[in-house]
């Protein structure tokens, strides 16, 4: 089966006054239909650049980004995006902000149907009753919920999330992680999440890609086991601690703070579960996964 998102051998440099700035190098990432990929890596390594390439806002110097096997050469209506700072239009109500993509993307829905769709999503994220408010009347977390509704209202098949929860406090962030699962259950989509939060990556993603320092390539891949619906408690199991340890170690390598044992891309699945520690006993730190060929 063809992966829905296929980033194949992507290399890109920005042209700057000081000369070319290589940002991505031979990057390969594939996301199957309905998959949720998280991309983590050191600050400035090229994660947002990757989202611009997937969204078709830029084209790579070398390699290709393909959706359903078709090279992406320009922005597509089938891709939705949400960013750290939700840019909601203050002169429109929350409902009208969410409806906006349906006014831009060609569709056969009546005004009433568009609003119904927006209302459904707003209710799903807990914003029923706030449809007529202006963005400035909402908290940061509520604005981000509205922004997620706007990104999904036209039922895009791909959702790009560039640190959408980065500016929120820890409790609101955890709330929104659960909202993401609810949205995904209501309307399946294929997602790429850029994040600095390793717990967020294991809570939301099926597969995590750790990028190296710039020019970034995939340094490590980790599959998150599918154990059914996730709850926040799953983040406090010994398995979660092991995954976080592996990821943290990989980020340190990417930052150049640890000696790279191997610069080749590695893959890990979490080690086999061990029994939960006895009450009062701490989970043991993970041992690093063995290198894969
Ligand atoms: N339009 C541009 N022109 C020139 N350089 C750019 C441009 N956009 C980004 N860069 C540079 O490319 C590098 C990668 O930027 P990018 O925003 O993709 O990184 P990032 O991994 O998303 O960073 P962060 O984690 O800090 O958000 C950075 O050094 C940045 O300064």
UniProtKB/TrEMBL annotation:
PROSITE patterns membership: ABC_TRANSPORTER_1, ABC_TRANSPORTER_2
Keywords: ATP-binding, Nucleotide-binding, Transport
Gene Ontology MF term list: ATP binding; ATP hydrolysis activity
Sequence ranges of Pro residues compositional bias: 268-278
InterPro entries recorded: AAA+_ATPase (IPR003593), ABC_transporter-like_ATP-bd (IPR003439), ABC_transporter-like_CS (IPR017871), ABC_transporter_ATP-bind (IPR050166), P-loop_NTPase (IPR027417)
SMART domains: AAA
Sequence segments annotated as region (Disordered): 255-293
Family assignment from sequence similarity: Belongs to the ABC transporter superfamily.
UniProt xrefs under PANTHER family: ALIPHATIC SULFONATES IMPORT ATP-BINDING PROTEIN SSUB, TAURINE IMPORT ATP-BINDING PROTEIN-RELATED
Protein name listed in UniProt: ABC transporter ATP-binding protein
Phylogenetic placement of the source organism: Bacteria, Pseudomonadati, Pseudomonadota, Alphaproteobacteria, Rhodobacterales
């Amino acid at each position: 089966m063809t992966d829905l998102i296929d980033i194949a051998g992507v290399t890109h440099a920005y042209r700057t006054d000081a000369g070319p700035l290589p940002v991505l190098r031979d990057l390969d990432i594939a996301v199957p239909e309905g998959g949720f990929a998280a991309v983590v890596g050191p600050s400035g390594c090229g994660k947002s650049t990757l989202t611009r390439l997937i969204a078709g806002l830029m084209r790579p110097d070398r390699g290709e980004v393909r959706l359903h096997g078709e090279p992406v050469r320009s922005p597509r209506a089938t891709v939705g995006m949400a960013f750290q700072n939700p840019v909601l239009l203050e002169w429109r109500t929350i409902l009208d902000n969410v409806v906006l993509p349906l006014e831009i993307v060609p569709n056969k829905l009546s005004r009433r149907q568009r609003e119904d769709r927006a209302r459904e999503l707003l209710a799903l994220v807990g914003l029923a009753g706030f449809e007529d408010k202006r963005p400035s009347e909402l908290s940061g977390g509520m604005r981000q919920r509205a922004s997620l509704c706007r990104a999904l209202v036209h039922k895009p098949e791909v959702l790009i999330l560039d640190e959408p929860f980065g500016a929120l406090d820890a409790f609101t962030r955890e709330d929104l992680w659960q909202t993401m699962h609810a949205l995904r259950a209501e309307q399946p989509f294929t997602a790429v999440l850029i994040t600095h939060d390793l717990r967020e990556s294991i809570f939301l993603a099926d597969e995590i890609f750790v990028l190296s320092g710039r020019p970034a390539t995939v340094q490590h891949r980790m599959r998150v086991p599918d154990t059914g619906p996730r709850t926040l408690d799953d983040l406090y199991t010994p398995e979660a601690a092991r995954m976080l340890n592996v990821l943290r170690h990989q980020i340190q390598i990417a930052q150049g703070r640890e000696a790279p044992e191997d610069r080749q891309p590695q893959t890990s699945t979490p080690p086999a579960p061990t029994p939960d520690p006895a009450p009062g006993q701490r989970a043991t730190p993970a041992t690093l996964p063995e290198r894969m060929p």
